[in-house]
Amino acid sequence: FFLTGKGSAMVESHRTSEVRVRYHAETPSVLALNENFHPGWHARITPERDGTTERRNAVPHDGLVATRLAPGSGSVVFSYRPPGLGMGLLLSAAGLAAALWMWRAGAGRG
To answer: Which helix (H) or strand (E) segment is 104 a member of?
Structure first.
């Protein structure tokens, strides 16, 4: 990862689909993660000054996953969820329910 502008950043944890970073930015900055950008990356930014969490889509920065930061300190959690995963799970569940209903309806005739 790297931080453009003046400041510092440190990885607190790194899991398969989630990276937590603490930052201190003296100027408006971009925090970039050393992961290839792909739709589905999100950033949750929690500045220390007010503690409110802002969720936004991550943006590409030279092909990497990134987010823009205002001056100050806080934490960023980058997370990845494949686009369409929720819809795919919903359609799979609907298909399974329909198959079970058809199987049960057919078993009642027999």
So the answer is: helix 85-109
pLDDT digits (tens, 9 = 90+) for 8-56: 999 999 998 899 999 999 999 999 999 999 999 999 999 998 889 999 9
57-86 tens-digit pLDDT = 999 999 999 999 999 999 999 999 887 666
Q: Which phi-psi region, left, alpha or beta, contains residue 56 (left: φ > 0; alpha: ψ -120 to 50)?
A: beta
- Which secondary structure element, helix H or strand E, spans residue 107, and what is its range? helix 85-109
Please write the tens of the pLDDT for every residue from 89-102.
Answer: 777 888 888 888 88
Q: Check: CB of residue 60 under 8 Å from CB of residue 35.
A: no
- Taking CA atoms, 47 is separated from 23, 39, 57, 61, 66, in Å, by 9, 24, 17, 21, 16
Query: What is the residue-wise DSSP string for 49-103?
Result: TT---EEEE-EEETTEEEEEE-SEEEEEEEEE--TTHHHHHHHHHHHHHHHHHHH
pLDDT of residue 43: 96
